[in-house]
Design a protein that fits this description.
The complex is a heterodimer. Chain A is 74% helix and 0% strand. Chain A is mostly helical. In chain B, the strands form two sheets. Chain B has an eight-stranded mixed β-sheet with strand order 6-7-8-3-9-10-12-11, with helices on both faces. In chain B, strands 2-1-4-5 form a four-stranded antiparallel β-sheet, with helices on one face. The chains are: A mainly alpha, B alpha/beta.
Chain lengths: 279, 334
Amino acid sequence: MTLFKKFRRWVDEPGNSLVLSGSIMFVTVVLMGILVPLFYRFGPYDFVGDPLQPPSLTYLFGTDQLGRDIFSRTFHAVYRDLGVAFIGVSIPFLMGTLIGIILGTSTNKWVTNLIGSLIDGINAFPLLIIAVASIAFLGPGLSSVIIILTLVNWARYAKIARTKAVVVSKANYIEAAYTLGYPKRRIFRKHIGPNVSSETIAFALGDFVLVVLLVAGLSFLGLASTPPTAEWGAMINEGRSYLISSKWVSTFPGVALCWSAISVSLVVDGLNRREGKIQ
Amino acid sequence: MTGKELLVDIDSVQITVKLSRTRRLQIVDYASMQVHRGEMMGLIGESGSGKTMLCRGFTGTLGRRNAFISGGKIMFDGIDLVQAKADVWRSVRGKKIGYVPQSALAGSNPVLTIGAQLREALKNDKELDRDAMRKRAMELLEIVQIRRPDIVMKQYPYQLSGGMKQRVMIACAIALNPDLIVADEPTTGLDVTVQAEIMRLLKNIRSEFNTAIILVSHDLPLINDVCDRITVMHAGATVETLPSSEIEKSKHPYTIALYKSRIDLAPPRGDLITIKGQPPSVGGWQEGCRFNQRCDFVTDACLKGPHPLYLQLKPGHQTTCINHASIPHKVGSH
């Protein structure tokens, strides 16, 4: 009872209901992404019945133009879509935060200005345009997307981390840490690091939504994963020709995509509200 | 307190800031101060008088602000801090000199629990095991009079009040039993009752552990109440050092003016007493005594030459005023 009351009180705090519902939505998708490949009777590439059958008890989400089960394909795509987005966010996050902290605390004007201009230069290009252009010579594929995100997106994180690192390294508690004689490495690891990364983590969550959509968007254009891969963007693209007669082919992967993006957005909104940044 | 062993000896220290590759600005050009073991020294001055910079001088963080000591010497317990290399600093910072940062509200790391911050301070010295560290941390919190330390240990700084945060910072500063605590305006941003508590706490620590404390502030009456001696800084120079009990027998017009501008000395409903004029701009000091534009006792001799040096009046009382003999014997008593 007390636990339940505690829970109720927690949910009543501003933003927590959003965080809760967002997390539940996200966990549902991830769980399905784990359970369906393990236990579902149809594989993503099996031709299980007649093409373009509407959703029924046998084929929960119907079948596509080649007679593959859409339910199985939709949830087989989870680890691909969210996995690529996760890697595509975490590598730039780590790189960018590290570089940003080094730039923000370094006293070498020459190096900071050089890398600072590089960051501004990279940030000046829209991500989608760089992505499309780079895929022209990297070749389509999810690995290309990860490479591009790594090469480009770190600059956004670095810019945020640098700004924050400049502020943090001048803060009184860092001054105190120096004067109390803490070793330099520990100051970076335990004092500057967490204070800077709180800012970049916040950006990473928002960025995750964009990257999920970017991966699916590029796949829709045939630039990331290509048919017959079970991937939401590619599946939406495949169902495009049957949109009038058999809506379910595009709809279910589309819903899954929206569902994941919205779930993370809800968490971000909820956390912002908790911090009082928005009402 | 003059019979005691000398701990800090600051002699004619100059501090210069690098503004750019070629431009330099001298912000402290004559600072002298002696602190004895177990003594509580107040360092008083207006904003921009260089008191914080002087503090950074003996905590070795000037480099972080692009400043350096360009002259004079700072001796701490037989160690020359001006020449000190990184490894010497490592053995001094935290272990022999504790530091309480300026603002209580931004003084503690927002992402670490109080327990973690204390552990950080303790880890500095020797590898205590977790239990010993926890015990010592609790002990420290009890020394700084925090109630229910077991709960506070698990809390984050944002859950504490300003006064409690500052107590935690003091606990960090005394964690390794330093010989000297530098408290740079430890009560900024705290209300008056909390201020008094923090001051009492520092006093207790002084008497319990025989720690010397340098208390930086611009609040003369507050400092005068708690410190044994006071050093007054004005425009980058120390102008007077005197025992706090003899504040009314001050022999420098600036100290007198500061003391007279106490709010409780102003007549009820009357105007507050202020020091006329503006303090000289940092580094752009005029010839002679830097207080000569605002001084009531100014003579021709005050307008010429370099800034006057300390004159020893009696043990523990030094002034830079060349006309100290003509200053009336007792001031400030209404």
